[in-house]
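User: I'm designing a mutation panel for Sodium:dicarboxylate symporter and want to avoid disrupting the core. Could you give me a predicted structure to guide residue selection? Please restate the sequence first so the numbering is unambiguous.

Assistant: Good idea. Sequence first, for numbering, then the predicted structure tokens:
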Amino acid sequence: MPPPGVVTAWADNITLLTDIFLRLIKMVIAPLVFSTLTVGIMRLGETSTIGRVGGKAMIWFISSSVLSILVGLFVVSLEQPGSGLNLAIPLEATDTGLAVGGMSLKGFLTHTIPTSIAEAMANNEILQIVVFSMFFGIGGASLGEKFNAPLVAALDVVSHIMLKVTGYVMYVAPLAIFAAISSVISTQGLGILLNYASFIGGYYVAILLTCLVLLAVGYVMLKKEVFRLVSMLKDPVLVAFTTSSSEAAYPKNA
């Protein structure tokens, strides 16, 4: 049995891989979201088409997000993940030194509008980046293909580059996961794996329930056409699942 000091040092140092991986993930998010979303909006063409398609997409996005949250809350209330980790939770009155402010609808909506796209990207404010990308894409689409074609081509190259970079970053994922699990096991013992297994099981149950709920909603809206849609999506979904990468299922230009 190694001395406690050695175990603590190992747990602290091995998480360097995890910290680097998380920072790499944060590094690619902003340019990837901006380039892919902007290119997608510009390629829709006329602003009337963007408004019609974008409105339907936003309604579906918000509705599916709410349903996903409700399913997640339901599974969490049943499983109680983390209950066996014996984590020391500070009392409510404990001063953590962090600035805490109440969240309101007004504050949330205001926060989604960026005062500076550079600041939004520097802080990885995804909603602010999405809002700016939407305005930027709509503005570019309104200029017409004659003017925005070079920009679309450039951003398309950027999006493909960022997808490649994301693929390279994901090569580090196994090492990062190994480092994170190794650190936890060294400090809390092998029994922690049972808690992780329970958490992962609950995660897959939540995904399955979410898919079933969304399919039910799709059936209400599309009737039997939803089954044809599922049949068309079967191959790309299987590719994305087996490769653990959504990029593998993206359509490729000839």
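For picking mutation sites, this is relevant: The chain has a mean pLDDT of 80. The chain is about 75% helix and 0% strand.
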